[in-house]
């Protein structure tokens, strides 16, 4: 007998992602996350190895899609043939992404959420076909990353996230392709997650870069600051390829809303 899950908010114009969406999601993530200060800090060799950036995001989102404790939701819009010219990221991929026609419906934004530990919804948003689909996303060789910078921020950020969000819905990733900014996609994606948390009487958490633009979206939705950390290089040599010599994480929380 199939397990019965609690009702979820309607998706409206949004939808659940599937494993077949991963090649497109990886392109959207590469294009959108490029403008995050964390991207410049971590992926300092992106221009030399852009294909590794796309492959890494493909694995990240494939893992979320296949995880019973996660939810990946996408926003769609009409395809713009010049979209690659609207981002400074280099989009190089051999992930067999579909060729789209002008005006065709495509994924332009994505959010990945982690469920609270012990949630009744674990497994609710995973498609059996996605679990059994043989598509392999190996993450590439990570040549675009600086291991030192990557480990420096993720180690402390994940530890702090665990401390601050013990029983929360956590927004792990949120991005929109720059060609489709200012159309409300990010806000719709976040609002769906907040509606889910509201139904479950659960708080929500998200972290973002203090110097980035994302915090304004979260503040507008009612998130408040609960923590802040910074990571700096001990030695920094300035050249054209160097990322910023520091990066931070601003931790935000959304309280339980009344029904």
Automatic annotation (TrEMBL):
Stored InterPro entries:
Acyl_CoA_acyltransferase, GNAT_dom, Trichothecene_AcTrans
Q: Which portions of this protein are annotated as coiled-coil regions?
A: none
**A Pfam family recorded for this sequence:** Acetyltransf_7
Q: Highest taxon of the source?
A: Eukaryota
| GO terms for MF | acyltransferase activity, transferring groups other than amino-acyl groups
UniProt xrefs under Gene3D superfamilies: 3.40.630.30
> SUPFAM superfamilies per the record?
Acyl-CoA N-acyltransferases (Nat)
Domain N-acetyltransferase as annotated: residue spans: 113-257
Name this protein carries in UniProt: N-acetyltransferase domain-containing protein
Read off the lineage from the record.
Eukaryota, Fungi, Dikarya, Ascomycota, Pezizomycotina
